[in-house]
Amino acid sequence: MLFSNIPLAVMTDSYKTTHPFIYPQAQRMVAYGEMRQAYDKDPNDNRMIAYGIRYIIENYVAKKWTLQDIEQAEVFFKTHNAGFAPFPFPKDLFVKIVNEHDGYFPVKIEALPEGTAIHAHVPVYQIIAEGEMSRLVTFLETLLTMIWYPMTVATLSRRARDLIQTAYDKSVDPDSFWSLESRLHDFGFRGCTSVEQAVIGGTAHLLNFTGSDTMSAAFYAQFQLNGGKPVGNSIPASEHSVMTAFPTEKEAMEAMIGTFGDGVFACVMDSYDYQKALDTVLPEVASFKLEKGGFLVLRPDSGDIVESVLMGLRAAEKVFGSDVNKKGFKVIRGCGVIQGDGVSYKSLGQILDATLAAGYSAQNCAFGMGGGLLQKLNRDTMSFATKLSHIVYLDGTKRDVMKHPKTDSDKISLPGVLDVRRNEQGILMVYPRADNYVPHKDNILQVVYDHGKVPLAATGTTSPVFASSIASSGHGVDESLAKILSLPESLHAWPMFDELKTRVQTGWEALPKVFDPISQELKDKIKHVLATGP
């Protein structure tokens, strides 16, 4: 891949390599990352899902630096300044990474467990750098901040699930709730800017649903994160090119039914005239479909996104009939509709409301979300930021640091070294860490990187930093293996993906929709810093 040939020394914003020259000399520096806003700044729900740190650690942070990489970067930096002049390049510091730290970036990173449900302002990770290398504390900000993407996708997908589940609670019998798992299908692969984006975002969606046409993400989640156990699935489906390849839509549908008609399959219906296809073609192939016995999913792909779903439901009911469930809503026999055009969080709710208002159960509808799921979002969607929070100067003086711009109070950052632990109600809150830097016994921030050491993979092999031939048993690190690897106790195994899905589900549902996670102790510290700072 392209990025495999790019030295880690340039895997950051240009100005980051100038900062080691201007940071004050220090014994220690600490920085942290957080989401500062709810999804789309929603005042009624500031919950979110912390997810994605493992990918960044394993694929970037934990990669070994080499002298060759540094030399290659030096060639680049010699012409990177404006006017093709030399750009500030801390070569001596980078060479020490190789010679004195075995090539591994010399920081410790703590992070929330993958899949943790939190509120805005809870630290997602914390970076600790010491000694001469403290000047590199925010060098990794560019890479680590990219966790905004999987977190935002996971949060959007979970919020979408809430909408669908609410409609299910109203209109679907309990014995059909199993279908909820596949109601939101990932159609986003082709709308992504790269395969890597599709894998990262598609995997985040799979925390909440099983439906996905982004096979790269489903494959990665299954074999890299879940020990080979399936995570995502799909169904056979036609596209417009398939439908228009036949002389008539009837022949195209008959080909689909003849090939896949004994299972679940989908046909796109608007290649020419959606209404005509529903009124004439669907009745013409109905007997063949009934003979095969499978489940047909009709897919509109143009027109009014709400009305086209209702048109499909009415046509399907007319052709195949329906039954009224225990909650008083109609369930169409052997047929449903999937809307995959223009689906967003807002339009999804509109479609569900209209479906129920028309008397149909929500189980009749599925949704495909493409660009709206994996592409139409950015770092500002939930306002992710990484900021310095604490410094110990060479003379031992400690100073808690925070950003507090008068022109934008939303951009205030948190001061000090931080702990994250549960209050009496089990809700995660942010507290100041003790002055001796020892985490509270209930702190849930876990060490995910420590000068090259990373957690083991729960899939039976170690993470890339360690020899792949060394295996672990179960989800933890046994005593003998930990001794072999010289692992600190805190560097436990990454959990299986199935465990993350359960963690997301239970954690999300247990949280109040709106909550201020800043403890009184930290609020007092903020007041003190504001009163005594610049």
Account of the protein in words:
- Belongs to the NAPRTase family.
- The structure is a single chain.
- With about 525 residues, this protein is α/β, with parallel strands linked by helices.
- It has 16 helices and 17 strands.
- Strands 14-13-1-5-3-17 form a six-stranded antiparallel sheet. Strands 6-12-11-8-7 form a five-stranded parallel sheet. The chain has a two-stranded antiparallel sheet with strand order 2-4.
- Helix 6 (about 195-205) packs across helix 7.
- It is elongated.
- It starts with about 25 loop residues before the first strand and ends with a helix.
- The model is unreliable at about 460-490 (pLDDT under 50).
Features:
34% helix; 5-stranded parallel β-sheet; glycosyltransferase; Nicotinate_pribotase-like_C; 6-stranded antiparallel β-sheet; Aldolase_TIM; alpha/beta; pyridine nucleotide biosynthesis; 17 strands; 534 residues
Q: Secondary-structure map with pairings?
A:
Elements (H helix, E strand, L loop, with lengths): L25 E10 L11 E4 L2 H9 L5 H11 L13 H10 L7 E4 L4 E4 L5 E6 L10 H5 L2 H24 L12 E3 L8 H11 L9 H10 L15 H6 L3 H12 L3 E5 L5 H19 L2 E5 L5 H16 L1 E3 L5 E3 L2 E5 L5 H13 L7 E5 L1 H4 L9 E10 L4 E3 L17 E5 L5 E5 L13 E5 L28 H7 L11 H14 L9 H13 L2
Parallel strand pairs: 6-12, 7-8, 8-11, 11-12
Antiparallel strand pairs: 1-5, 1-13, 2-4, 3-5, 3-17, 9-10, 13-14, 15-16
